[in-house]
Specification:
The chain is of the alpha/beta class. The protein is built from 14 helices and 11 strands. The chain has 2 domains: 196 residues, P-loop containing nucleotide triphosphate hydrolases (Rossmann fold, 3-Layer(aba) Sandwich), CATH 3.40.50; 101 residues, Magnesium chelatase subunit I, C-Terminal domain (Helicase, Ruva Protein, domain 3, Orthogonal Bundle). A 5-stranded parallel beta sheet has the order 2-5-8-1-9. The protein has a two-stranded antiparallel ribbon with strand order 3-4. The longest helix is centred in the N-terminal third of the chain and has 18 residues. The N terminus is likely disordered.
Amino acid sequence: MDTSQSATDIRALNEKVERESAFIDLLMMEVNKSIIGQKHMLERLLIALLGNGHILLEGVPGLAKTLAIKSLAQAIEADYSRVQFTPDLLPSDVVGTQIYNVQKNEFAIKHGPVFANFVLADEINRAPAKVQSALLEAMQERQVTIGEETHILPEPFLVLATQNPVEQEGTYPLPEAQSDRFMLKTVITYPKKEEEQMIMRQNLQGGPEKIQAVVKLETIVKARETIREVYMDEKIERYILDIVFATRNPEEYRLPSLKPLIEFGASPRGSIALANAAKVHAFIRHRGYVIPEDVRAVVLDVLRHRIGITYEAEAENISSEDLISQIVDQIEVP
């Protein structure tokens, strides 16, 4: 394919993406009726939804995590369910169970809250491993087995899990293999002073406006297909691989000082998620091609939970975010 031809193709693709991503602004405007600030969190929710992944939100209570996912579900006319994870929760409380019907003399299936488009797993680290693994089967396989029957989950299906970073008593931290299944892990911070003043006023005046459904589920499914077409140059692919490989072998990327700080690097899931999230980020920005800024914008959310840090790093108060930032600064941008 000659250069002029490919340039024409990219221009056509760009126009298509501009057309088909127009709903993003409408959706954001609607959700912002109830969510003030937190633009980063809302964008990350959209990236997980459009990238067909799941998201783990970490932040102290009261930062509108639950309200954000509820508002998004209302604006998309989607089914929404919430599970409050507690230490006495059972897998059947999440996925459902078989109930014996005396009149019919047979077992009937009762679906659990996981059968929804948006599932909020509140304080996921409060539940024992058995419940977490039941939810993770649903996340990974997009299906649930109850008794001997397998049930397919609805499309789109997004699990939004929250965890409180402060309270560690009575919690079960997510094992690496489980947290690796989340496409993104987003850390939420407090709002700015002006934003909090608006939040305070809004609540004193009777709470946020009611959110209307402005986007159909089919639009989300169609957008996912368009995102697959978003152009990613081979140079960008190599850039993503360099970042991921530098988390595994930092000494090969002139970063020998990081070797004793990293216990294990990102898995191939990290490369896939980073490429996927970069494509969605380009789509949200109404662009039909990926640029290095798309990769840099999502790299922390995609990799922060996929890198194990050693005791030495913990002793020096170095987090996985610090290591990723050093790697991204070192790797040559295409």
